[in-house]
Amino acid sequence: xxxxxxxxxxxxxxxxxxxxxxxxxxxxxxxxxxxxxxxxxxxxxxxxxxxxxxxxxxxxxxxxxxxxxxxxxxxxxxxxxxxxxxxxxxxxxxxxxxxxxxxxxxxxxx
Length: 110
Hints:
6-stranded antiparallel β-sheet; 1 helix
């Protein structure tokens, strides 16, 4: 009997904690996707909390055929209130992010 009561109280505590920390869903208020016959695309959306995302993919000639080059941006409000904005390109040479919040490497001096 005592074990049953303890187990029941533990379940009630877990259920209460889940309700306390459950976040309300954030709605998507704008969404656009355009794609052509070659799978080049433009995707953009914005959420109800002000976050936004944009991504574009286009085919460009490369040394071994066409390469899908992507570029885009993300923007959101950080927990400390700052606006974080990241822009990027991704191509045959890799992923290239740019943002004020990213660390900057210091050139080596010999």
